[in-house]
Amino acid sequence: MATSAGPTSRRWSPPARTSWWPARLRCSSTAASRPPPSPACANWPQPRSPQKSDDHPRVRARALHDVDRSPAHPILHALMQRLERQRALIALVERQGDLTLEEACRSFAISPATVRRDFTEIVARGAAEKTWGGLRKNTSGPAVSDDMVPSGLRETLNVALKERIARAASALVQDGDVLAIDGGTTTLCMAPHLANRPVRIITNSLLIAHRIDRLRTTREGAEVFLTGGLLYPGSGSLLGPQTVDNLGQYHTRWAFLSCGGLDAEGTTNTNQLVAEAERAMIRMTTQAIVLADSTKWSKRDMVRVCGWKEISLLVTDAPLPADLHTSVKVRITDA
């Protein structure tokens, strides 16, 4: 007697072809059992490595942090090259009495067009007189006050006195201090004494910032904060309302200031914008230090900067004359 078989249980199984399955659902053993790729596939793009490539932003930032920081920004470096070249041209005119275009081209290995532009700027600032095909020493003196004479010319005047005064002023600064320095050739001489010290410097002078950056050899050296403002032609200084506003955001222990002249009432300056920046530095600091050599004594310029009561110390090279007798402290530098 035949017996009928009951219903058989069916178990579902995937179809024989599995190529349509998503890769994430495939068995890892299947992938492991695959043969190695053929040579024709060797040039196919490979998956990106989890390691960051050299052009990754973080890698670039780390690389920039590790490299030598001595080269300046290209734009700033070009500006400093032009100012330093003009300073050298002015010094050559002062030493020789005159300078021709051909001599300048040969001495500095620059084109006649570049020399003509430099000559035009030097003459416009009153640092030299124009002659047929060259420059000659300015026999009538600078056309503007000392504080706004091009830095190249001012740096060649009274160099020994400025170095002595700057060295004495820098000795006041202690490690960790925050200080402000204005744009002047005497204050510029402070840069070598501060570049490798752990201090913070706020300045409106591109020349000071550039010199410190070039002289700094350690990462623990001076940190420089530049203000904004208008770059006054030929001075390397940032001036104007933005400069004053930026200075008002800081507070410093020291402010080292240059000046155009000293009289019985205080310090003076020819340029209104310079005077405003110096007043802003006086407001932001605990102690205002004025650096001035004896050639500035008994000289009164157009704009009053501040009175003697606002000055904590005057650093100079000789005792003050009788007509400048004040209650301000005076530090006289050693010879």
Task: Give me a quick take on this structure.
The chain is an alpha/beta fold.
What attributes does this structure have?
12 helices, alpha/beta, 335 residues, three-stranded antiparallel β-sheet, Rossmann fold, Arc Repressor Mutant, subunit A, seven-stranded parallel β-sheet
Mean pLDDT comes to 78
Q: Just give the CATH class of the largest domain.
A: Alpha Beta
Strand ordering within the main sheet: 6-5-4-9-12-14-15
State the CATH architecture of the largest domain: 3-Layer(aba) Sandwich
β-strand percent reads 15-25%
What is the terminal separation in angstroms? 136 Å
How many E strands?
15
Described by the principal axes of the CA atoms, the overall outline is globular
Order of helices and strands: HHHEHHEEHHEHHEHEEEHEEEHEEEE
Specify the helix fraction band.
25-40%
Work out the count of structural domains: 2
Protein name: DeoR/GlpR transcriptional regulator
GO molecular function: DNA binding; DNA-binding transcription factor activity
InterPro entries: Carb_Metab_HTH_regulators (IPR050313), DeoR-like_C (IPR014036), DeoR_HTH (IPR001034), NagB/RpiA_transferase-like (IPR037171), Tscrpt_reg_HTH_DeoR_CS (IPR018356)
Pfam families: DeoRC (PF00455), HTH_DeoR (PF08220)
